[in-house]
Design brief:
Blueprint: H1 9-18, H2 20-27, H3 31-39, E1 43-44, H4 47-53, H5 58-72, H6 81-91, H7 99-118, H8 162-165, H9 167-174, H10 179-183, E2 199-200, H11 201-214, H12 228-246, H13 255-258, E3 261-262, E4 275-276, H14 283-286, E5 289-290, H15 306-315, E6 322-329, E7 333-336, E8 341-346, H16 349-357, E9 362-372, E10 379-385, E11 401-405, E12 428-434, H17 436-445, E13 451-460, E14 470-473, E15 475-482
Parallel strand pairs: 1-5, 2-12
Antiparallel strand pairs: 3-4, 6-15, 7-14, 8-13, 9-12, 9-15, 10-11, 10-13
The structure holds CU-O-CU linkage.
CU-O-CU linkage binds next to α11.
Length: 483
């Protein structure tokens, strides 16, 4: 049995306080009962697995009924389906490290609204495991169901590419040791809705990639109109929890992250809530748990549990990347779907070689910077290093493959507050790719060349319609970074 005695009375009261009504109810019973409450916290499960066993599993039925009940509420009710989507449209945070806690809070209160509106107090929000099931799960395709969305760009059999949700790619993201490279970096200005050069790992690849793959509502900031949105984010949440709790990686301890107040949501009664980002790291220990969604890394990894794990997560760790030697090209670069764009960087191979010898706190980071947000985002970009003959067909199992990134943005929300008033141009964005593992592989296969060829390969999503697109950027940089 898991050791639960580490949750002190005071801490639990504080956390239970966030949970409002139910928290107060079990708190009244004393800490014996809070430990039980934690032990029996609801388990979030894989919705496709539930469906395969029984299409009328209570979790699926409750989610359907909850969505129907939310759709039946007037949009003036902040718990209504449309009001919940509008919160995202007007307030959502992306392209920086606050996206993770912001969406975690979103899901927690959505789950509580589902319980309240259906009376099913045991309900736990399920997730879409796109790694094991790369197509939109079956419960979302019944045209008479409240879970159906008619404007998706894919069909029931379309599968998202392994470049976005495949095991190799997700394992690479889960092996990341730095929070900023796992989760995206800090917002560069006081504007939380901006994020030049900060998008990475979990956000840049499976998160953005699944939004783009599904398309339709999911390709916009009104994505929560599609009920599969919450399943997608729950999988991102599960991967974050796995990275923390099973693989024992720490989140940032930067006070700008820990103390950030999330104030955009309401509880099951429609009352506004305030949650600090730092406390959300304890949710998967205290308030819910996941059926393992881990990607080829189940079991065996866990070193910290109970009291040590809680202390470790509360403490966090410095995550700021201190950039050392860097090599860059700075000129207009255009990459077009169906074409490959390659840039050459002249390297100091000795400096790179010594970074490759460095421990887990030394990374080699590729910045794809000053990227003009593309007006059409129905493609994603694969990155290859030193692969002169690369094409869109080159396998991602090729050792020269370094990662992928995708775009998620909505210019119509620019008027609604997600962008500074008055700005009309599409913003600049940028991506960080930790290429240390790829360079290590290439280094083992031979010597490091003094020129690094970085190839960007835009690849269309699997769609009903043919796609085209172009991405323009101004800078590619390779740097050694320590944290
Ligand atoms: Cu705020 Cu995946 O969206």
């Amino acid at each position: 049995m898991q050791d639960l005695s580490f949750f002190s009375r005071r801490d639990f009261l504080k956390d239970a306080g966030l949970l409002s009504l139910a928290g107060a109810a079990f708190w009244a019973g004393g800490c014996e009962s809070c430990q039980q409450q934690i032990q029996n916290r609801p388990t979030r499960k894989n919705i496709q697995t539930l469906w395969n066993a029984n299409p009328s599993d209570p979790v699926i039925t409750t989610y359907k009924n909850a969505v129907a009940a939310m759709k039946a509420l007037p949009s003036s009710d902040p718990r209504s389906w449309e009001a919940q989507a509008q919160v995202h449209f007007n307030k959502c945070i992306h392209r920086n490290w606050l996206w993770l806690p912001w969406h975690r809070v979103y899901l927690l209160y959505l789950e509580r609204i589902c319980r309240k509106l259906t009376g099913d107090q045991t309900f736990a929000l399920p997730y879409w495991n796109w790694n094991t099931h790369p197509a939109i799960p079956d419960p979302f395709w019944d045209t008479s169901s409240p879970l159906f969305d008619s404007n998706r760009a894919v069909t029931q059999t379309s599968q998202a590419s392994a470049s976005i949700i495949g095991t190799t790619v997700l394992q690479g993201i889960l092996s990341e040791t730095n929070f900023n490279l796992f989760a995206s970096g800090p917002p560069p200005t006081s504007d939380l809705h901006q994020g030049p050069d900060a998008t990475s790992g979990l956000e840049a690849t499976p998160h953005n990639g699944i939004h783009g793959f599904v398309g339709g509502d999911m390709g916009t900031f009104l994505s929560p109109r599609d009920a599969v949105f919450y399943m997608h984010h729950n999988m991102c949440d599960c991967m974050w929890a796995h990275w923390n709790n099973d693989l024992n990686n720490a989140n940032t301890n930067d006070p700008a992250w820990v103390n950030f107040s999330i104030t955009d949501f309401v509880d099951e009664n429609g009352s506004p809530v305030t949650v600090e980002a730092g406390i959300t790291v304890l949710y998967p220990l205290l308030t819910y748990q996941f059926e393992p969604c881990s990607i080829g890394m189940q079991g065996g990894q866990k070193k910290l549990t109970g009291k040590q794990l809680e202390a470790f997560l509360r403490a966090g760790t410095p995550s700021k990347l201190e950039f050392g030697p860097r090599w860059e090209v700075r000129h207009a670069i255009t990459a077009e779907v169906g074409k490959v764009s390659t840039s050459a960087l002249s390297l100091d191979t000795a400096a790179i070689a010594s970074a490759l010898q460095g421990g887990p706190h030394t990374r080699v980071v590729l910045t794809v910077g000053d990227v003009q947000m593309p007006p059409k985002r129905d493609f994603y970009v694969r990155v290859f290093l030193n692969k002169p003959d690369v094409t869109a067909e080159t396998s991602i199992d090729d050792p020269h493959f370094a990662g992928s990134f995708a775009f998620f943005f909505d210019e119509s929300a620019m008027k609604g507050g997600a962008m500074p008033a008055g700005s009309s141009a599409l913003p600049l964005t940028g991506f960080l790719v930790d290429v240390k593992p790829t360079l290590q592989k290439l280094n083992q296969a031979g010597s490091l060349p003094s020129q690094l060829h970085v190839s960007l390969v835009p690849v269309p999503y699997e769609r009903r319609e043919p796609v085209s697109g172009v991405v323009k950027l101004g800078r590619i940089e390779l740097a050694v970074a320590n944290f």
